[in-house]
Amino acid sequence: MKMMLDYYDNMTGNYVAVPHSPNYYFYGGGGSGYYGPAPSISTLDAFFSDPGMKPSGITAALQGDAVLVAAMGLKRVAYEGGPSLDRTNGAADASMHKPLTIRA
Hints:
The protein is mainly alpha-helical. 42% of the residues lie in helices and 10% in strands.
């Protein structure tokens, strides 16, 4: 986002002949919607009770993206999202077979 302001709005130099705010060039922006537990998680109980797996644990990050893009006149969009299970020390593998995950 900062790059859009710096370049397209000429905030850090004279890059474009007629500067415009980011919403002139782009429809939306924002981060991905991935979320996940802390890397130290090693049990299924800890996995499902970790704040990073609950809406209250990810709301602030998503709201931060929304505020930033709204200030630039953009819509908040995300490439994709869901649980990010790549830093869980094996608990993620076991979680895929727990009934709570299958129903969710």
